[in-house]
Amino acid sequence: MTTHGGFEPVFCTVVPPHVLDKLARNDDPALSGPARRTLMRDSELRGRRRVTTEFASAAIPTERAPSDQPLRTIFDAEHGTALPGTKVRGEGDEPGRDATVNRAYSGLGATFDLFLKAYGRHSIDGDGLPLDATVHYDENYGNAFWNGEQMVFGDGDGEIFLDFTIPIDVIGHELAHGVTQYTANLTYYGQPGALNESMSDVFGSLIKQYTLGQTAAEADWLIGAGLLAPGVSGKALRSMKEPGSAYDDDVLGKDPQPATMDDYVRTGRDNGGVHINSGIPNHAFYLAATALGGHAWEKAGQIWYDVLTCGELSERALFPDFAGLTVKAARERFGDGSDELQAVQKAWEQVGVRIL
């Protein structure tokens, strides 16, 4: 459960609706067809998630993993939509011939490892929640999502998107939505929704850096590198280092993410721009992490994790609320006058977010 007396799972995808909208309007049916089907599937699943959340009673888990070990199960939807699908790999099973299955299994494990070893968190809910994932979902499905209970990965259409298990930060991003669900439970709209998305980008990037053993200076700070097909003019879905620079493509359009509040986007689409304005807190984290140097999960990541789990972050927190709590967390953990405190304060100032 959460610090707020109960969680409300939401349906969270890694590819923003505005990207799929752009593809769905393309004249080439090879591009527009898969995008339209993905949008329709996402809309159906989002509605189903709301109904399930409203009317279902809380499930009582029947199995828990050992506190220091993940409990992973990978299922194959075989290009259908029934979840979870056919079990194809369980915890401790040897790798098989399906690279997608193996990548999903490894990505779940890497996410578990970061949260356990860096922050002492036992799985997504902090209590050994089993990690389930379904691969090969639907036909040419161009997304990956956390539905409040498990991970689901599409294979992409091969024209714009490749297999969604390729970038480990996509796996980490979606599982981090589960961590937010079980902690601050940030409302998925407007600035709290953008913070929700940003937390997933932050920890998705940290999981990749942790797995690769990278310092903040060595990391690429891209979300979804390797996901875009070779013909696409772009390097990823988002850039934390340079929001707005991830892609600039005739088909996809230009990355609309702002880096500072000067370019904040006011829109009713995409749940009030949750995937767009997340570029602002994303960039603040990048600035703080690179100013501090070393491994980003050790200092900046610890501060962000402290805020997410402290119990003081409101479900409807705005950027200044979150910024103020990061300053408080940095002061409490590292002290007045510390480099960590100064780096966090300066990062928010640079992106134009006032600190409450």
Give a topology summary:
Blueprint: E1 12-13, H1 17-24, H2 29-55, E2 72-76, E3 86-90, H3 99-119, E4 131-135, E5 144-146, E6 151-153, H4 168-182, H5 190-212, E7 222-223, E8 238-239, E9 248-249, E10 253-254, H6 270-273, H7 279-292, H8 300-309, H9 319-334, H10 339-350
Parallel strand pairs: 2-4, 4-6
Antiparallel strand pairs: 1-5, 2-3, 5-6, 7-8, 9-10
Strand order of the main beta sheet, please? Answer: 1-5-6-4-2-3
Low-confidence stretches: 1-7, 49-62
Largest sheet: 6 strands, mixed
Helix content: 40-55%
The total count of helices amounts to 10
Number of DSSP E strands: 10
Characterization of the model:
- The chain is an alpha+beta fold.
- The protein is about 40% helix and about 10% strand.
- The protein is built from ten helices and ten strands.
- The protein has helices spanning about 15-25, 30-55, 100-120, 170-180, 190-210, 270-275, 280-290, 300-310, 320-335, 340-350, and strands spanning about 10-15, 70-75, 85-90, 130-135, 145, 150-155, 220-225, 240, 250, 255.
- A six-stranded mixed β-sheet has the order 1-5-6-4-2-3, covered by helices on one side. The protein has a two-stranded antiparallel sheet with strand order 7-8.
- Helix 5 runs parallel beside helix 7 and helix 7 packs antiparallel against helix 10 (about 340-350).
- The longest helix has 27 residues, at about 30-55.
- Residues about 1-5 and about 50-60 have low confidence and may be disordered.
